[in-house]
Write a structure and sequence with these properties.
- Helix 1 (44-66) crosses helix 2.
- The protein has a 3-stranded antiparallel beta sheet with strand order 1-2-3, with no helix packed on it.
- It has 137 residues and is α+β, with helices and mostly antiparallel strands.
- It contains 3 helices and 6 strands.
Amino acid sequence: MSALYTAIATANGREGRAVTNDGLLDVTLAPPKELGGTGAGTNPEQLFAAGYAACFASALGLVAKRMERDVSQASVTAEVGLGSNGQGGFALSVTLRVELPDELQGESGRALVEAAHQVCPYSNATRGNIPVELVVE
């Protein structure tokens, strides 16, 4: 694969900072309170959720354009869960909640979301690696 774009970020752990090489993203990292942290910063799961939601929304727009549909009022919420993998490590799970306009409810909307799931690079990267549930609202 020849990359069309490469994002570069550096972090020094779950507590500290994450910074992109262009300085446009510079965030404080801290474990969430639910994991015994202070919650005084963002965490990798939130960053992954934001990235996946944005990317999936973009893929949805691309697919909708191809199908001559309007999804400008749609939104995508990604819920990223972190849990034990049962082998001493950790695993992720994702639920993507896609809110579509009324005229795209039902089978046509579901088909649009399924097609976006085939186009989105986050979906392609996670497919077969972590469970991803699609919820069309």
